[in-house]
Amino acid sequence: MPSHFSTLGFAVKTREDFSALAMQADREGLSIEVPGQGYYKIWTPGEGIELWAQLDQEGYLIGLNPHFNGEALMSIGLVKRVSRPDDTELDGAFYAWATPGDDPEMGLYPFAFDAPDYRMYDALHLPQLANAQLAAFAYEIKAYKNEEALRATGKRMAAESCIPSGTFRPGPTGGRIDPPESRVIYYGYVLETALLTNPVTRRAFYWARIRTLGGEVDLVADPEIVKGTIVKDGIVGGQFWLSGRLK
């Protein structure tokens, strides 16, 4: 299982690796004050990579979250804020609907996404319509040359589809997940793709802008877990963690 950081080319395998990366983001990052809570330090070393270090009011590091800044945008309906037991003061997520109409509380499907700059939206009144740049960090991913190749595997997923797996448990004993998790199963057409190089570590990672049910999403993946070859106009599918920033 890749980490959210290896997905962007950072070899974070131990607590010491995580601490070293957080301290580097603190040193290199641009400071953004969150009044009464602390600071974010956003480090953007290049190739769309963003690392968001978190500092409390005394200046102590309390967290670090990754994001990938791409060009994909999705129209969403922001419904409510999501907090989880292990969150820091600067962590947070949103529960939303994909591609709503005039009502932000109705759309194609509900989902949750983590926001690395969550506390910057403290003044935001919900529910409301918004645009989000969503980055899907792959846990599992498989690439197909075309829809015929996808169908040949016996999979019944549509070429553009989403299962919001972080919002409910399947099966007769399932039910709603509360608080919702920022996980989805996406299938989508590849609009653009590239094998990028992390400027800091020189490690490679895959990026693709995909069209899926609800709109466009930026996808990133550790090359070690990619099955098949990601190609433009092909199809990708898999399980992902969602990070998002409002635009």
Description:
Helix content is 8%, strand content 48%. It has 2 helices and 16 strands. The strands form 3 sheets. A 5-stranded mixed beta barrel has the order 8-14-13-12-16. The radius of gyration is 18 Å and the shape is globular. The two termini are 30 Å apart. The model has no long low-confidence stretch (mean pLDDT 95).
How is this structure best summarized?
With 247 residues, the protein is mainly beta. It has helices spanning 15-28, 147-152, and strands spanning 30-34, 38-46, 49-55, 61-68, 74-82, 93-98, 110-114, 128-144, 161-163, 168-169, 175-176, 183-197, 204-212, 215-221, 226-227, 235-246.
Question: Strand-residue fraction?
Answer: over 45%
Summarize the amount of helix as a percent range: under 10%
Radius of gyration: 18 Å
Largest sheet: 5 strands, mixed, barrel
Integer tally of domains: 2
| Euclidean distance between termini CA atoms | 30 Å
Give the overall shape: globular
Helix/strand-derived category reads mainly beta
* Unreliable parts: none
Number-wise, the strands total 16
Total count of helical runs of at least 4 residues: 2
- H/E element sequence: HEEEEEEEEHEEEEEEEE
Strand order of the largest sheet: 8-14-13-12-16
Instruction: Tell me, rounded to a whole number, the average pLDDT.
Output: 95
Protein name: VOC domain-containing protein
List keywords for this structure.
single chain; 247 residues; mainly beta; 2 domains; five-stranded mixed beta barrel; four-stranded antiparallel sheet; VOC domain-containing protein
